[in-house]
């Protein structure tokens, strides 16, 4: 399993647009076989930082999702929303793996 951690720097004046972008991607990742763990929006502390976590069974499944998303109309509409509204200033992507622990 691989989990993707995204850290977004967002435009706080365009939070509603970012929320719509996030709602779309939760559904899209799940439709493409991943498990979306959610978006985490600013509350206390930094007002312009948001996070997302989602997992795929492995790197190959994630790469297939990335390839497929480039031609999917709903994915392209989500990318366009972010570009047109400029709700995302920048983002960072990290790949994480869960710690395997032995059973009882």
Automatic annotation (TrEMBL):
One Pfam short name: NIPSNAP
Residue span, NIPSNAP domain: 8-100
Protein name per UniProt: NIPSNAP family containing protein
Highest taxon in the source lineage: Bacteria
SUPFAM superfamilies: Dimeric alpha+beta barrel
InterPro entries assigned to the protein according to its UniProt record, in alphabetical order: Dimeric_a/b-barrel (IPR011008), NIPSNAP (IPR012577)
Organism expressing this protein natively: Streptomyces subrutilus
């Amino acid at each position: 399993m691989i989990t993707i951690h995204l850290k977004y720097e967002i435009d706080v004046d365009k939070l509603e647009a970012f929320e719509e972008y996030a709602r779309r991607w939760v559904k899209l990742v799940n439709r493409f076989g991943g498990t979306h763990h959610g978006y985490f929006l600013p509350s206390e502390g930094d007002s312009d930082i948001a996070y997302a976590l989602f997992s795929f069974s492995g790197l190959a499944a994630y790469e297939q999702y990335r390839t497929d998303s480039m031609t999917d109309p709903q994915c392209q509409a989500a990318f366009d929303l972010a570009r047109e509204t400029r709700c995302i200033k920048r983002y960072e992507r990290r790949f994480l793996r869960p710690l395997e622990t032995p059973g009882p």
